[in-house]
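Hi R.,

Quick one: here's the Transposase-like protein sequence you asked about.
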Amino acid sequence: MTEEDIRNHRTRCFGHIINLAARAFLWGEDADSFEREAFTEAAFQVEERELRLWRKRGAVGKLHNIVRFVRASPQRRELMKSLACDQRDDDDYQLFDEERS
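And here's the predicted structure, written out as tokens:
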């Protein structure tokens, strides 16, 4: 490497170093964590707005929000499945059959 190549390389690195220093100054040591948190907050706000819009739809909107809530995590899905199976085993409720009435 020539002396000029070394100087050019240092000049390019200097811009990168300034960028890293500015990010550390603005967002702390973990700038990526800050960006992830900001993205998560923005996504949360969009979801809240969407849920409010669906809620205005009445019963269908409430059902939509319940389904989204249940489907949001595997634990909730499993709980819903177990509750549905438990309900099926109960003899307290019978389906109404118009033909037999």
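The radius of gyration is 28 Å.

Cheers,
M.
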